[in-house]
# Entry
Amino acid sequence: MTTRIVELRRGILKKNDELAAGLRSRFLDAGVLVLNLVSSPGTGKTAFLEFTLRELRAKGAKVAALVGDLETDNDARRLAASGAPVRQINTHGICHLDAEMIDKHLAGWEGVALSGLEFLFIENVGNLVCPSSYDLGEKIRVALLSVTEGEDKPLKYPTLFNSADAAVITKIDIAEPCGFDRELALKNINEIRPGIRIFETSAKTGAGMPEWLGYLAEARARRS
Amino acid sequence: MTTRIVELRRGILKKNDELAAGLRSRFLDAGVLVLNLVSSPGTGKTAFLEFTLRELRAKGAKVAALVGDLETDNDARRLAASGAPVRQINTHGICHLDAEMIDKHLAGWEGVALSGLEFLFIENVGNLVCPSSYDLGEKIRVALLSVTEGEDKPLKYPTLFNSADAAVITKIDIAEPCGFDRELALKNINEIRPGIRIFETSAKTGAGMPEWLGYLAEARARRS
# Structure
């Protein structure tokens, strides 16, 4: 039984990798920078992304977002308040997004063409495990971690942090009441992924967001 | 492909259900009350459980815990500080515990016999999705949610909250800086699982813990 599962799993991942490679080359051709945001449920991905979309739009950037959840379109409605085009993906019981879901939801997205975008954000389903194994064709995978979650998350979920291109610490405005140990968190992230760019942010106060937005601008400049 | 996966998945869940039924009858025969704690990573399951183990031991109860994580034995070491026997289960990439893992780790657990226990706590891998589908033979499934996570989690992860016997809100000591909307959270939990017992707790201040410990005592009394 176990062997069959492993083989089937490899087959699924291989198929996903092929689809993701196709997406990656489409994103490159279209000139759109694609980011995949991964974290635990409740880390504050949506608040962080809402802030990011609003700021980028204020600078005149062309942005859009796909957002994954098992159920509800709460997040799409929240993000749409930024004015950016947002499309909800409901996975109905699946604990991660995969390349096929991205492909399907890009097709027939009214009023949105990849070639008209500078940034496409994909907010994954809240989960620190399975999204790590599914490439979505993104250029940048972002692992988010809030000050409320415990500093040892990178050690407990090494695959995500090891496969990430950037790490974002959220909710630093409540670091003190949470007793957040900043040095330990930074040490643990660096132990799993030495030298990764780390942003310490608050979507409530805006702390750390200028550095994050600067990183996005650099990443776009580097892309071409 | 999809059909084969669904069939295989059903097969796995069926096998798990059978193993779990066997565990459940062993737990009943041994007279041990078994609880399965499920939440997102970072909700504070370990702190909540550490408090619970310490208090129960102080009252002279015979308690033990199994704790699941992908990697590290950090949580087992933290929990062992309570003085209770604790055994770590490392799942190495699997995002939930299953009945087979419980069975294996009960066997050969030095110094611990089911018949010598009043309470066995199982701390699941931090994940709001997959643990919902895997029965571990527990009597009581507890869904935990922290004030930092967003009040709409029950709506977004209905399977967990719908299959839970009790809900625990953690970290209420930081409800205010987090802007936690208590009424909304209670409304959403009740929408998914009407009438479920809800405990509002803090492992830091001890708030809500007397009610939780009272519930455990009642559940044991009801068991026999």
The first strand of chain B starts at residue 33 and ends at 38. The beta strands of chain B are 33-38, 63-69, 86-90, 119-123, 140-146, 166-170, 197-200. Chain B has eight helices and seven strands.
